[in-house]
Write a structure and sequence with these properties.
With about 110 residues, the chain is mainly alpha-helical. It is built from four helices and two strands. Helices cover about 45% and strands about 5% of the residues. A two-stranded parallel sheet has the order 1-2.
């Protein structure tokens, strides 16, 4: 049997995450932003689940705000603050953690910048 990165690392890691409750995503039918690797459809679903009653337009503005935050040259500090913020529109539900969505894929190339 030939041992490769896929057989020894990638597939076991994905299987472990799926057992922990992550949902596996095939990239074939997915649409994502190449600059940020955010999946807009999944983002909208997750935000509307975490923040019931939020307006669709507000989710779009939040997505644009997250994209701008990711462009900051601060090693992710502003994005971390946005994730950890517990007031206003939440990106993570810390009170009911099962309300959050977790996904895993095999590989996603990062194409932003250089």
């Amino acid at each position: 049997m030939k041992f490769t990165e896929d057989t020894r690392v990638k597939i076991p890691a994905i299987l472990h995450l799926v057992r922990l409750g992550y949902q596996y995503l095939s990239l074939k039918d997915q649409n994502w932003d190449l600059d940020t690797n955010i999946f807009p459809g999944l983002f909208r679903q997750a935000i509307s689940k975490i923040n019931p009653g939020i307006d669709y337009a507000d989710i779009g503005r939040l997505l644009e705000d997250v994209k701008l935050t990711l462009d900051n040259d601060d090693l992710g500090h502003a994005f971390y603050n946005k994730l950890a913020d517990r007031s206003g529109t939440k990106l993570i539900d810390f009170e009911n953690f099962n309300n959050n969505s977790f996904h895993v894929i095999t590989e996603l190339t990062y194409q932003n910048g250089d």
